[in-house]
Specification:
By secondary structure, this protein is of the alpha/beta class. The chain folds into two domains: 1-34; 36-183, Rossmann fold, CATH 3.40.50. Helices cover 46% and strands 21% of the residues. The protein is built from five helices and six strands, in the order H-E-E-H-E-H-H-E-E-E-H. It has helices at 2-26, 61-81, 91-103, 112-119, 165-183; strands spanning 43-46, 50-53, 86-87, 124-132, 137-146, 152-161. Strands 1, 2, 3, 4, 5 and 6 form a six-stranded mixed beta sheet that branches. Helix 2 (61-81) runs parallel beside helix 5. It is globular and about 40 Å long. The relative contact order is 0.14.
């Protein structure tokens, strides 16, 4: 009986060791709570949202300008907070984005966003825009490009309802949730 017990104990020890090794190799950044450290994350420039489509007339200009500012800030904050990217968003970077934006449409400029991202020493650039079909029906588009190659790394469109703060915020939350799921990051 004692030999059967020692075999079971030995087998249990081997299984436990194999499980421990498997876990250690499967999640190398466990020491950081399952998150990548900021230094291991890709440096990403996030452009401000652009609104296209039916803009609803001049009555909506001020509200849209503020909503774009808030949504752009929220997207940058959520990407950082969820350890998805090392977002290049210091005041100097935002000033560069603003200057380039005042000279041309960064969402349709045939690669100028890549040049700007290179100037900011970023590895990737995120270009977000909202297509407004109506006050009720909108689509958030997001494209992430590799700065060195220009290759599209991610392209996503999220339909949402309501041209209001709640609708835009929910769309950003769904985008972040999807990005986390793609990387298997737990909340």
């Amino acid at each position: 009986m004692s030999s059967l017990f020692s075999i079971n104990l030995a087998l249990s020890s081997v299984l436990l060791a194999a499980l421990t090794i498997g876990t250690a190799t499967a999640s190398p950044d466990d020491a950081s709570g399952g998150f990548s450290t900021p230094s291991s994350l890709k440096r990403l420039v996030v452009l401000d949202f652009k609104l296209t489509g039916d803009l609803g007339g001049s009555n909506f200009e001020a509200a849209h300008k503020e909503r774009i500012r808030v949504a752009s800030e929220k997207l940058r904050d959520e990407l950082k907070r969820n350890h998805l990217y090392n977002v290049v968003d210091d005041r100097a970077a935002l000033a560069v984005i603003e200057r380039w934006s005042s000279e041309q449409n960064l969402h349709h400029c045939n690669g100028c966003e890549l040049d700007m991202a290179k100037q900011l020493n970023a590895e990737q650039v995120l270009v977000p825009w909202i297509f407004r079909m109506s006050n009720l029906v909108l689509t958030m588009h997001v494209e992430i490009r590799d700065v060195a190659t220009g290759r599209i790394l991610m392209k996503k469109a999220l339909d949402f309802r309501g041209d209001n703060d709640i609708g835009w915020t929910r769309a950003i939350a769904y985008l972040i949730r999807d990005m986390k799921e793609r990387r298997n990051i737990k909340s």
